[in-house]
Amino acid sequence: ETASGYALFVRDQYDELGNIDEGAVQTDNLKDFMSLVKLRAFLPFTSAEVALSNINAIVAGECTDELRDFLSMHLTTQSKKKKKAAAYKLGVADPKLGDSLNELGFQVTYSQSVRDMLRGCRQHVAKMVKMDESDLDKARCGLGHAYSRNKMQFDPNRQDKPIINAIAILDGL
Prior knowledge:
By secondary structure, this protein is mainly α. It has a single domain (5-129), classed as Nucleotidyltransferase, domain 5 (2-Layer Sandwich), CATH 3.30.420. It contains seven helices and four strands, in the order E-H-E-H-H-E-H-E-H-H-H. The chain has helices at residues 30-36, 48-59, 65-74, 95-103, 112-128, 133-153, 161-172, and strands spanning 5-10, 38-44, 90-91, 108-109. The strands form two sheets. Strands 1-2 form a two-stranded antiparallel ribbon. It has a two-stranded parallel ribbon with strand order 3-4. Helix 4 (95-103) links the parallel strand 3 and strand 4 (108-109). Helix 2 packs across helix 6 (133-153) and helix 6 (133-153) packs antiparallel against helix 7. Residues 1-61 form the Nucleolar protein 58/56 N-terminal domain. This is snoRNP complex protein nop56. Pfam families: NOP5NT (PF08156). It comes from Perkinsus olseni.
């Protein structure tokens, strides 16, 4: 997931355990990284509110309808009755989100090699999606502020006034 939407990347060279064959992924060079990982699909969020609701669900380890529909459209799920193995392993960074996706029938894996690949995907997503880096930075900043503001509203100690004021000043800049 990014601040602007969901992206699905494909990596073909995996062994049976879901690990990357060559070991650590080299993420610095875009050309080398694109030879390992391809962008299959991108689903932009329709509004800032949709982005905020999706990020809140992801942080809680829940799969949203948008994410489920996006993955169902581009991946085949494993039937609970047919114990046939899926033709893919979906790499995720968060085990709680992985459990939610696994309950929906997606084959999920999370390991150090998956985290390395996700790091490269985050680093190069703007170029792979053909998006301006400054637009993605603005989306990240806006979503980060909205998420923080939303989290602070639910502070039981109500010691959040200085933080809310600081965020409001940053938003005004």
